[in-house]
Specification:
Helix content: 40-55%
Strand order of the largest sheet: 3-2-1-4-5-6
Largest sheet: 6 strands, parallel
Strand content: 5-15%
Structural class: alpha/beta
Order of helices and strands: EHHHHHEHEHEHEEH
Oligomer: single chain
Number of strands: 6
């Protein structure tokens, strides 16, 4: 595919709920943290509804769920320790992700990860899955002053890679991704299989809604 044939030059991907299903590891780390604090654990199905705004919000939601918000200062470092320990335990990509990323890479698209997950967790995940070389850049939630749904992380990625937002596509699974992309002036795909606080991603009005990662082929290939 030539440069003039491509509808976009850069594709930005969220990580959790878009490329990987990290809820099992996050739930394990959250529950080990709650247990350390003498609090009851939460079902993984509930933890899934807390994912998407970064680790601080995840822990705050877990503590609010157990009526213990005052324990945040103690819980936050505990969570990091537990999540680091189980980060790669059973880690897996969603169906079609590896093949899709390689296909886009072969077609000459620049690709980047823009996630609210703390950056020190991002590289080990991408390397363990064998997809780190697919990305020209990855930004964690602490790499710029504000997280998604602010457009700033997306605009920072565009600036770093020298691509206009109008030539950039955001792919994510949550309202945060859609709002960030819309504010940044770029098109956005909403994936239905990820984490969106229990709400349909279509409610956020992305430009396209896809049920499977492989459906990106119809837009980009």
């Amino acid at each position: 595919m030539s440069v003039t044939d491509r509808p976009f030059d850069l594709v930005l991907f969220d990580l959790d709920g878009t490329l990987i299903d990290s809820a099992p590891q996050l739930a394990l780390a959250v529950n080990r943290t709650l247990a350390d604090l003498g609090l009851a654990e939460a079902d993984e199905s509930v933890v899934r509804t807390w994912v998407g705004n970064g680790a601080d919000k995840l822990i705050q939601r877990a503590l609010d769920y157990r009526d213990a918000p005052e324990q945040f200062a103690k819980a936050r470092p505990l969570f990091d320790r537990h999540y680091q320990a189980c980060l790669l335990e059973g880690l897996a990509m969603y169906d079609g992700v590896a093949r899709g990323l390689r296909r886009l890479q072969g077609l000459g698209y620049q690709q980047a990860v823009v996630t609210n997950k703390p950056s020190h967790f991002v590289q080990p995940i991408l390397e363990a899955l064998g997809i780190s070389d697919c990305f020209a850049l990855w930004l964690g939630g602490n790499c710029v002053p504000v997280k998604k749904p602010s457009p700033e992380p997306l605009l920072h990625a565009c600036h770093e890679l020298g691509v206009s937002p109008s030539r950039t596509l955001m792919v994510g699974d949550s309202e945060n991704d859609v709002l960030a992309a819309q504010a940044a002036g770029m098109k956005v795909v909403g994936l239905t299989y990820g984490y969106n606080y229990g709400r349909p991603i279509a409610d956020s009005r992305p430009d396209w809604v896809c049920e499977q990662f492989a459906e990106l082929d119809s837009l980009l290939v």
